[in-house]
Amino acid sequence: MNNVLETRRTILRRWLAATAAGLGASALPARAQKLAPTLECDADAEPTISETAGPFFTPNSPLKKDFRQDAPGDAVTLYGRVLRRDCAAVKGALVDLWHADAAGRYDNDGYVLRGHQVTDEDGRYVFETIIPGLYPGRTRHYHIKAQPPGGRSLTTQLYFPDEAQNASDGLFDARLLMRLDAAADGKVGRFDVVLR
């Protein structure tokens, strides 16, 4: 592979094709293999820990994949899977995402940088979004809820690696770090959610 970074879409297309073929990360190019699953899935995977939703959750978000239409910022494609503790995919899980804009502000009147997806048969979700800005007392983070069909919702937060503010944020938990890699057109982040 040459030294040119691949685009986020190319990395995701290869990930989706590899997952569909049952090949996993080994079928991805070397750069995309850095985006290995956020857990080593085994017969008894530890469930993703919960964290507060914070004061900015808004219910009834729209079905939306592309958040970048609503707000400018540095591009990130956030993707992953929703799994059970035995590593089986959770089809039809609702994954709700919300976060601050590039200046650290939340839209509390509408649905800018708010939306949800429903996982496919392999438990996959994808959001095209931006890197959230900082605001007093918090490091960069995404808020996420994942709810299996007919089951209880998990609310948590996803964090960016190598952020100086991680050390001073009282809510930060290293178990919630995303895998993050550069692409030619932005960043690509991955987090697999394991439900109880």
Please provide a written account of the structure.
With 196 residues, the chain is mostly beta strands. The protein has helices at 8-20, 30-33, and strands spanning 75-84, 94-98, 114-118, 124-130, 141-147, 154-159, 179-183, 186-190, 193-195. Strands 1, 4, 7, 8 and 9 form a 5-stranded mixed sheet that branches. Strands 3-2-5-6 form a 4-stranded antiparallel sheet, with no helix packed on it. The relative contact order is 0.24.
Keywords:
globular; five-stranded mixed β-sheet; 9% helix; 2 helices; four-stranded antiparallel β-sheet; single chain; mainly beta; 27% strand; 196 residues
Briefly say what this structure is.
With 196 residues, this protein is mainly β.
DSSP, total strands: 9
Helix content: under 10%
SSE order, one letter for each helix or strand: HHEEEEEEEEE
Give the low-pLDDT segments: 20-37
Class inferred from helices and paired strands: mainly beta
- Note the main sheet: 5 strands, mixed
Whole-angstrom Rg: 16 Å
Number of helices: 2
Gap between N and C termini, in Å?
39 Å
Report the average pLDDT across residues.
85
Strand content: 25-35%
Shape: globular
